[in-house]
């Protein structure tokens, strides 16, 4: 198992008014960096609020040993942000696979809402790649993680799953299964665009996310 490089966990990006404690966390995709989701964060963070964009372990690198699972990365984020107060979590692509276990680790007292943008949670063993990525791919693709989003909703974390209509990441059969699911607290929306287009500034998907965050955060603050 590869060790956690300290520099990997010390390079978050913070967007918003100076001195305002972050109330939104945005997690980037596999191989990306916090800067790659900066426009996304700006588009969905409520006015006057601040967003934290952590750097996931190994992002931007091609390590020889990469056997960590989304749960390992969720633990990294939790360990390096223990002083963060109640906040919303938004995960794009692979960041969504990290956001779900992270929300379950912290629970509804710390995670106000969870948003996942275009990530597959069903088993997809056909997407695994040869060495040296096989172990990481097995941990990501060989298992069905759909129960994680169901669980976040059931423990009281309002959860929104946005799927791209033309996504190459989420297969049509999985999209249909999500839409057929009747789970209180879990909202599923299919937005126009492919995997990248749904996070373009002013996309319909981000308008939905911004409205969801504003409503959910207002509701929890009023309780």
Descriptive overview:
The protein has helices at residues 6-9, 38-44, 70-80, 94-106, 134-141, 146-154, 172-180, 204-222, and strands spanning 13-15, 24-27, 51-53, 87-92, 111-117, 159-164, 186-191. With 223 residues, it is of the alpha/beta class. The protein has one domain: Rossmann fold (3-Layer(aba) Sandwich). It has a seven-stranded mixed sheet with strand order 1-3-2-4-5-6-7, with helices on both faces. The termini are far apart. Mean pLDDT is 85; it is low at 1-10.
Number of strands: 7
CATH topology: Rossmann fold
The proportion of residues in beta strands is 15-25%
Question: CATH top level?
Answer: Alpha Beta
CATH level-4 homologous superfamily: Alpha/Beta hydrolase fold, catalytic domain
Considering DSSP H and I runs of 4 or more, what fraction of the residues is helical?
Answer: 25-40%
Second-tier CATH architecture: 3-Layer(aba) Sandwich
Domain count, please report it.
1
Any key phrases for this structure?
single chain; alpha/beta; Rossmann fold; 7-stranded mixed β-sheet
């Amino acid at each position: 198992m590869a060790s956690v490089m300290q520099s990997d966990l010390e390079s978050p990006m913070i967007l918003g008014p100076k001195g305002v404690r972050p109330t939104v966390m945005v997690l980037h995709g596999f191989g990306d960096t916090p800067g790659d989701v900066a426009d996304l964060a700006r588009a969905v963070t409520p006015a006057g609020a601040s967003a934290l964009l952590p750097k996931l372990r190994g992002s931007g690198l091609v390590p020889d040993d990469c056997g960590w699972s989304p749960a390992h990365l969720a633990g990294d984020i939790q360990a390096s942000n223990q002083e963060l107060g109640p906040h919303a979590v938004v995960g794009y692509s692979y960041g969504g696979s990290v956001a779900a276990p992270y929300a379950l680790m912290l629970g509804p007292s710390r995670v106000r809402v969870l948003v996942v943008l275009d990530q597959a949670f069903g088993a997809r063993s056909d997407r695994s790649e040869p060495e040296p990525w096989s172990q990481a791919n097995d941990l990501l693709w060989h298992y069905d993680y759909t129960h994680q989003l169901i669980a976040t909703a059931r423990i009281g974390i309002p959860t929104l799953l946005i799927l791209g209509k033309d996504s190459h990441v989420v297969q049509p059969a999985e999209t249909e299964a999500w839409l057929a699911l009747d789970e209180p607290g879990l909202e599923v929306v299919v937005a126009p665009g492919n995997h990248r287009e749904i996070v373009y500034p002013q996309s319909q998907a981000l308008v939905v996310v911004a409205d969801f965050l504003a409503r959910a955060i207002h509701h929890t603050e009023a309780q």
